[in-house]
Amino acid sequence: MPCETMLSGTRVALVTGATSGIGAAYTRALADRGWDLVLVARDRERLDRTAAELASRGRTVEVLRADLSDRADVQRVAARLVDRARPVDMLVNNAGFGVHASMTSADTVPHDRAIEVMGRTVMVLAGAAGRAMRERGRGTIINVSSTAGFVTMGSYSAVKGFVTLLTEGLANELHGTGVTVTALCPGWVRTEFHTRAGIRSSGIPDFLWLDVDRLVEASLRDVRRGRVISVPSFRYRLLIWCTRHLPRRSVRWISRRISSSRNDIPTP
């Protein structure tokens, strides 16, 4: 089935981290295109509030409360994705958070949780969706990664680099099956993400900030075009081109400068 058809009409999309930021923007964009939705997040109150807003637009909305750092909860979401009686046509693997912790810290909990939620969970859910969609011969998987995966800013960069490579590998595995797989790699987006992560954003130039709704629209255009890696906006595509062609020592230097300006990971 052509990607254009997959992005219109009454179909079902499951979105993780659906109550805020990029996830919430996806739910609005898909609802406006006529999609019904399965919302996945930890906060039941926010889930119900988001569901009510989308239902007011005439959509059918299902709520699935899950903590994606809990493997039992992840399996419940995976089971929903492979439910043949209630097929899911699109997965938006969006749940995530910033990692405001040094890699040399004795406390590895923030890194463990990042690997679990933004690494393993993405792999498990994308794999489940891929199996079910391949069987039906159609479907769309969007894994929300980051431009941080192309630079070297601690464990967050490492996890997002994993997500991008995982997406490319899954796209290869599902090539020719009617299932498309795309990694969305945004830069800095105006959402509550940075505030919740405790990351100072005042040092980031205005021209680098992206509008969340425009970001999602651009990513859906890339999905229609069958792109495996979506880097919305020319400025970020240019920056990522540079990171791929500069010597790695230069990429590490740039990464240190960015980390220092954000007060994200202390730099000696």
Characterise this structure:
It is a single chain. With 268 residues, the protein is of the alpha/beta class. The protein has one domain (3-262): 3-Layer(aba) Sandwich (Rossmann fold), CATH 3.40.50.720. The protein contains ten helices and nine strands. It has a seven-stranded parallel beta sheet with strand order 3-2-1-4-5-6-9, with helices on both faces. It has a two-stranded parallel ribbon with strand order 7-8. Helix 7 (193-197) links the parallel strand 7 (188-189) and strand 8. Helix 4 packs parallel to helix 5 and helix 5 (109-136) packs parallel to helix 6 (154-173). The relative contact order is 0.13. Mean pLDDT is 87; it is low at 1-6 and 263-268.
Q: Find the structural class using helix and strand composition.
A: alpha/beta
Question: How many helices does DSSP assign?
Answer: 10
Biggest sheet overview: 7 strands, parallel
CATH class: Alpha Beta
CATH superfamily: NAD(P)-binding Rossmann-like Domain
Order of helices and strands: HEHEHEHEHEHEEHEHEHH
Rg for CA atoms: 18 Å
Low-confidence stretches: 1-6, 263-268
Binned, the helix content reads 40-55%
Instruction: Report the principal-axis shape.
Output: globular
Give the averaged pLDDT, no decimals. Answer: 87
Order of strands across the main sheet: 3-2-1-4-5-6-9
Fold-level CATH name = Rossmann fold
What CATH architecture would you give? 3-Layer(aba) Sandwich
Strand content: 5-15%
How many domains? The number is: 1
Distance between the termini: 53 Å
**Total number of strands:** 9
